[in-house]
Specification:
This protein is mainly α and about 280 residues long. It has ten helices and two strands. Helix 3 packs antiparallel against helix 4, helix 7 runs antiparallel to helix 8 and helix 8 crosses helix 9.
């Protein structure tokens, strides 16, 4: 039996068994393996986004230049937060992003240039920026890399997703947002919340760089903003009539599908830890 012939649950389990240890190793080993891991994931997710946008007739976002800008944003954020580069280097992004307008002047086949400029920037705001902010999160308290906060957020995200999946499959009856995602239920969301809170209490015991209250607050953000992030991506995919952003990860779809819960969660977590 091939992997594609297995049930969705079995594909999810096999993918998790292979991917999760690798993710944990890269995050835990050093700040540079963390950078390499999420630089690649962020770029692939951004490429997926532009590919989906480009699948609609008349849409021509600047796929490769937009992704290049996302990579530069990510690298700048890492080295500035690490203290290697001065904060003023963020201004490199100003002329770089302005080039998007200049490039479109020479795309004669583009009949909707400003619409596609907007789609290019949307890929940067919706996908590239949250992955860059993940680096800010890794250095949120000082210039020393902290893998605990990254691992903790991922554990909470996985707990929320798994709890929602199993609770929704077993007990799901009351639709959460049927217009956008017919399969999501309130029962699933409650299951995800309970799972995330259990993991938050465990993190409070073992990941002591942050308090229990902080972990619980982060867990609540990931459940709420993560659910909205999932719904936003579902709305996006329904608008172009597809099920998954890609088939890269068996049972999970693409990188955009797998990390959509973090895309809208990270800005709120950053605000919580920086401002409160």
């Amino acid at each position: 039996m091939g992997l594609k012939d297995m049930s969705n649950l079995m594909q999810r389990v096999i993918a998790a068994v292979i991917a999760v240890p690798f993710l944990i190793f890269c995050i835990q080993f050093s700040d540079y393996t963390f950078l390499g891991l999420f630089l690649i994931i962020g770029a692939l997710a951004q490429l997926e986004f532009y590919k989906l946008i480009g699948s609609m007739e008349g849409n021509l976002p600047l796929t490769f230049f937009g992704t290049f800008c996302g990579i530069v944003m990510h690298l700048l954020t890492f080295f500035i937060e690490k203290g290697v580069l001065a904060y003023q280097n963020y201004y490199i992004l100003s002329p770089l992003l302005t080039l998007i307008f200049f490039i479109k002047l020479y795309k004669k086949q583009d009949v909707n240039p400003f619409q596609n400029i907007a789609y290019t920037f949307l890929g940067l705001i919706y996908v590239a920026l949250p992955f860059a902010l993940l680096t800010v999160l890794a250095f949120v308290k000082n210039e020393n890399y902290d893998p605990q906060i990254i691992l903790g957020c991922l554990f909470l995200l996985w707990a929320s997703d798994s709890g929602a999946y199993f609770a929704g499959t077993k007990f799901g009856k009351t639709k959460l947002f049927e217009r956008v995602s017919p399969k999501k239920s309130w029962e699933g969301s409650i299951g995800g919340f309970v799972s995330a809170m259990l993991v938050a209490f465990i993190l409070g015991k073992f990941f002591t760089n942050y308090t229990l209250i902080e972990w619980i607050s982060i867990g609540v953000i990931i459940v709420v903003a993560g659910t909205y992030g999932d719904l936003v991506e579902s709305l996006f995919k329904r608008s172009i009539n597809i099920k998954d952003s890609a088939n890269t990860i068996p049972g999970h779809g693409g990188f955009l599908d797998r990390f959509d819960g973090l895309l809208l969660s990270i800005p709120f977590i950053i605000a919580l830890l920086k401002l409160v």
